[in-house]
Amino acid sequence: MSHFSCQNGALCAENLPLAAIADQFGTPTYVYSKAAISENYLSYALACRQNGRTAETALVCYSVKSNSNLAVLHLLSQLGSGFDIVSGGELLRVLAAGGDPRKIIFSGVGKTRDEMRLALSHGIACFNVESVSELHRLSSVASDMGVKASVSLRVNPNVDAKTHPYISTGLKENKFGVAFEDALSIYRTAAALPGLTVTGIDCHIGSQLLDDAPLLEALDKLIELIDVLAAEGIIIHHLDIGGGLGIDYESEAPVAVSDYLARLFAKIDAWRVAKHQGAPIKVLFEPGRSIVGNAGVLLTRIEYLKPGSEKNFAIVDAAMNDLMRPAMYQAWHGVQAVAPRAGTPTVWDVVGPVCESGDWLARARALCVEEGDLLAIMSAGAYGMTMSSNYNTRGRAAEVMVDGDTSHLIRQRETPEQLFALEKIIP
Ligand code: LLP
């Protein structure tokens, strides 16, 4: 169920009119629904329970990069979530939000020594290692600290995720993970390094996947490898299938989380019974978009209407610096009037004030609007605020979380002075 709906002619977040949020906090503002985030997380957690898993045998590690606001992380941590991080910065965010370090996994191709030390000092659960060089570095950092780092190799199963090339990550040509063919010898190296303990295997084949077939194909590859490793005495205790499930932006109809997890667990159970006397293996997930994507909108106000002979432009106060996805991936986001008007719609391109032709949020949308109207850019909860920038010295948008009929400011709008506070003029 969508938590953004029209009630008495006014678009609301849960039970709160978006217009009231604009009045109180201004625009542009990201607005998130607490209930939507919770439900989306619970759809994973409940599917794990329904397939016989406990908190010990399945863990959802929310992908922090999709939306890293402390309030979002705190909410998810209270619901029992773990976290998938890709930087020391994300680690500190999760800890500041009360996240449990023992439920943190660290992904990413370029971890620095400092980041490794920080993560080891907090006792995170596991490093998802992406290269041989990284294994050596991690082993030496851990040995220097007198500890052992738990590692999982991110294996590239070479399956086509059938998604946008910029967000597909499981093909040989991508920079991520180690090649499937090389994995065995790299695991041998890992097992022999003094600062490491091999605990897992992982993959992440891409994002905004609508079908689970590529994910299940990737699972088959990982299962095959786990058995090869077991025959060599390298025992894998957890299998991390990554994130990637898509959401409805327009009418994509992605596979339901419960269906995907039922198929995935059925495959794992059949394999464990056939080959491992039914001994369980812990399963990890790294979802981002499917938890927060449809739980947020970007609220913006129309500054000017600029009709033209070729195109009509609705110039709003949000821009590509606030929501990069359209400019970067030609991504489609729904646009809804916050107070829909009666009348004949006109076709508008919704664009921002930034000095780039690529600064658009939506193209060719039939809208019945006037200057000063509020618009909601839909499905903006994932990779919206986290990918925003200060281009054109524009302060980042405010962020608000709605709980029922109550709004909470969870990040203040940035002021211009804050944007140049770290800069200095030379003598
Ligand atoms: N795990 C790893 C290792 C990842 O690289 C990602 C996303 C995830 C998990 C979470 O994937 P999700 O469940 O959200 O699909 N900026 C792009 C998406 C980039 C995704 C990067 N990796 C966008 O706006 O569409």
TrEMBL record:
Gene3D superfamilies per record: Alanine racemase, Lyase, Ornithine Decarboxylase, Chain A, domain 1
Domain Orn/DAP/Arg decarboxylase 2 N-terminal: 56-292
Domain Orn/DAP/Arg decarboxylase 2 C-terminal: 30-381
Keyword terms, alphabetized: Amino-acid biosynthesis, Decarboxylase, Lyase, Lysine biosynthesis, Pyridoxal phosphate
Residues bearing PTM N6-(pyridoxal phosphate)lysine: 65
Cofactor(s) required for function per UniProt: pyridoxal 5'-phosphate
Catalytic activity, as annotated: meso-2,6-diaminopimelate + H(+) = L-lysine + CO2
Alphabetical list of InterPro entries matching this protein: Ala_racemase/Decarboxylase_C, DAP_deCOOHase_LysA, De-COase2_C, De-COase2_CS, De-COase2_N, Orn/DAP/Arg_de-COase, PLP-binding_barrel
Superkingdom per UniProt: Bacteria
Binding site for substrate: 289, 325, 329, 356, 383
Enzyme Commission number, as recorded: 4.1.1.20
Biological function: Specifically catalyzes the decarboxylation of meso-diaminopimelate (meso-DAP) to L-lysine.
HAMAP family assigned to the protein according to its UniProt record, in alphabetical order: LysA
Oligomer status and interactors: Homodimer.
Designated name of the protein: Diaminopimelate decarboxylase
Biological source species: Actimicrobium antarcticum
